[in-house]
Amino acid sequence: MNENLLDVLLYLFENFSLTEAEHAANVRDDLGDAGFFPDEIDDAFAWIRATQPEGQALALSPSADAIRVYAEHETRVLDAECRGYIARLEQCGVLSATAREIVIDRLMALAEDESEGAEIEQLKWVVMMVLSSGGEDQAYAHMESLIHAESPGASH
């Protein structure tokens, strides 16, 4: 995974609203002050723009009952654990079929090469960023509660 890009994205996600970050004049300055380089900042904003449904060029919106078959290059980046987690998020209503495609696309965009796989924690962050950027507040809250429930110190 492109760790530099992921670091910028996580910094933005934790400190700003992703949908408003690009339009705020001081965000780029803040990122520069935090030690990020201009090309990393540009890449992060391009990545964020592509998380929004209007930034995606899906030929057709997938139906809710569609079964996702992964391409070979996707399986090299998204191992069985990641693919299973994505399916679980769909089944429990966190990800719509369209959001699933955006998550997969954004994970593939983070992969520097296809031999480098995504980790489950990276997947969770990407899901949170996609839901946040897409304005899916209820799904975001559901994902947040799932993450807290999965934490080692979570009470049951």
Automatic annotation (TrEMBL):
InterPro entries per record: Smg
Highest taxon of the lineage: Bacteria
HAMAP family the UniProt entry points to: Smg
PANTHER family: PROTEIN SMG
Family: Belongs to the Smg family.
Name by which UniProt lists this protein: Protein Smg homolog
Organism expressing this protein natively: Salinisphaera orenii MK-B5
